[in-house]
Amino acid sequence: MFAAMGMWLGPMLWAQLFPGDWFVFLAAGFFGVVLGAVVLSGMRYIPNNRVGIVETLWSPKGSVPEGRMMALMGEAGFQADLLRGGVHFGLWAWQYRIHRVNLVTVPQGKIGYVYARDGEPLEASQTLGRVAACNNFQDARAFLVGDVVPAPGEEALPLGQRGRQRMILREGVYAINLALFVVITEDAAYRLEFQGRRELETIVGWQNELKASNGFNPVVIGAPIQAPDPIHPERQITVDSLGIVTVQDGPSLGPGEIIAPAVGTRREDKHFHNNYQDPEAFLAAGGHRGRQYVPLTDGTYFINRWFASVEVVPKTVVPIGFVGVVVSYYGRTGQDVSGTGFRHGERVAEGERGVLERPLGPGKYGFNPYAGSIVMVPTTNFVLHWVTGRTETHRYDESLRSIDLVTKDAYEPTLPLSVVVHIDYQKAPNVIQRFGDVKKLITQTLDPMLSAFFRDVAHKRTMLQLLQDRDDIQREGRETLSARFSQFDIECVDVLIGKPDTAEAGGKIETLLEQLRQRQLSVEQIETYQRQRAAAETLQTLNDAQAQATMQTSLTNSKVQIQIVENQGEAELAKTRKAAEADLARAQKMAEQMVVTAQAELNRSRKQAEQMVVLAQAEAEQRTLAGKGEASKIAQIGLSEASVLLRKVQSFSDPRLYALTQIANQLANSNQPLVPQRVFMAGTSGHSANGDSHHGADSSAQGLFGLLISLMVAEKSGFGVAEAEGAKSLEEYAEKMTREAMTVAPSTTPNGVTNAKPDAS
């Protein structure tokens, strides 16, 4: 009633009604009433990141039944149902205790393991509790009693069992009742503390074991690891990994079995367990505990390490040049396929126990080493040395030594030898079945066989024969050992014998060899001398033959030269005949061609002659007419010039004056000085400058310059100039030439015919 009034009237109203200390009293009462209401209502608050585990302190229904720890029907004890985040009522403090715990968190890529404190007990053959439909342990009631009623005719779903569980938790957050379950992760153990320190120590021990086996991480197969070389075990090689699974739960193997058979490996199988990741399917398929035949190949697997442990081993590598003979430890007893004549063991088919009839070729195999072994057998030719201190890389001959011999003449050498061996890959299982491995074959069979054979050979021969008959011994050894090796399915390719020797230096064998060398040297010298004598005799014979051959060569050369000359003459004659015949034929052809050509030329010449005659006549007439015209022209021009000149001369009344005028004009235009630097005088009395006289000489011989001076002197002196002699004859000649020119000059008629003018004289 007071709480309702306080909610409606407010603090001020309360202060007016109850002044002073009464206000404090009423406020305390109000909170007390509220607290009482909360207590009386049984209200509890659970955060959203936690869950509440209810523990009933007392109940009218009494305690939980015998053999149970969890209360399913409201009995006193830990309740199966959880309280999730929020406010809950009816959980009175005097009857219920609430344990607030964190949500279970499994980190990414990790695995969580579960231990159940309650449930049905485990069966005698079980080590882990079976998988129940409980929503990853978040439904405790379904884990304990189931929450689905089976239909008529169907089997009831299995209920959860106490103890460690086959089911694991993958990454995520889970609301799990930690009173019933303990969840172990890599970094925490989720549980409700109420069973003391002993339980905690057990849980911590499990956690440490899982950490040691890397159980909180998934199994990763395929990473490269180091492994011994199958041929050279002292070396290490890098090989992909393989997972060998050992199951810790389920029925045990039967008597005589060491490897659990493969079950539920195919996806179409009803109980396909997906590589041991589903334990219930594995067990339902008939799986047994123990090492499993089927290994894990490359991949990532979330496997419960309480259920199955995984051993990482290298894959099996069969190198090139080898085959792997499989000796199987797993499978049923097989039927022998080697035949009744082979009494060294049985060869069986795949899936049966024993030496498999088909070997593994070169490659990489996911072979389970606990289900069998693989013996490497070389299939290429390999050499075995019976030489002390020498071995090949395969190490098959590391225990072999040079063979000790005793010869017929009591020498005791050691014989080094090498044998080339080949094993057919199809017969490799026979060899392994017979001997176990290649090294045992060599040490237990080949070594005694070869030693005995060559000792027998040495007993029948002296030391010299042993040295000299090496090829025969090798051939005999190859043939004999090939036949013996074939009985063991081995092929002897070749036998190579070395030089016999003694253990001590400078022993009897060396002395024998030195004597043999000297003897052989003597034999060789005798042979050399004989050959030298024979060579000398042959040289003498050769010299005689060469002398005869020298003369014979000259004679032969002369005869050959004669034949060569005769042959050359005949060849030249034949060549000349052929050339003459060819020239004759060619001349005949040329003559015929020339006759034809001459006739054509004659005809053409005739025509050309006729044409030339006509042309000559025309050209002659043309030239005659042209000459006459040119002559008339020149005559007329000359006469004209002569008449003009004559008139010029006559105008001076003395030709000499005209000449003097011409000379004066020439001198005026001349570049020479008018007055000479030197004067040569010509004599006028008939005497020359040197005193000689020339009678009867004409005055004109005095020279041009003297004449000119005489004329000038005569003119200045007043003497008359006589007429030039011959002027009249010149005029007559000019008139005569004029008349002839006029007579010769042609006249043209109106019809174009040229007529000659008759002579006027």
UniProtKB/TrEMBL annotation:
The chain crosses the membrane at residues 20-40, 172-190. Residues 745-754 have a biased composition (Polar residues). Residues 570-619 form a coiled coil. Keywords: Coiled coil, Membrane, Transmembrane, Transmembrane helix. InterPro entries: Band_7, Band_7/SPFH_dom_sf. Residues 742-761 are annotated as: Disordered. It is found in: Membrane. It comes from Singulisphaera acidiphila (strain ATCC BAA-1392 / DSM 18658 / VKM B-2454 / MOB10). Residues 319-523 form the Band domain. GO terms for cellular component: membrane. This is Band 7 domain-containing protein. Pfam families: Band_7. SUPFAM superfamilies: Band 7/SPFH domain. Signal peptide: none annotated. Its main location: membrane. It is a single-pass membrane protein.
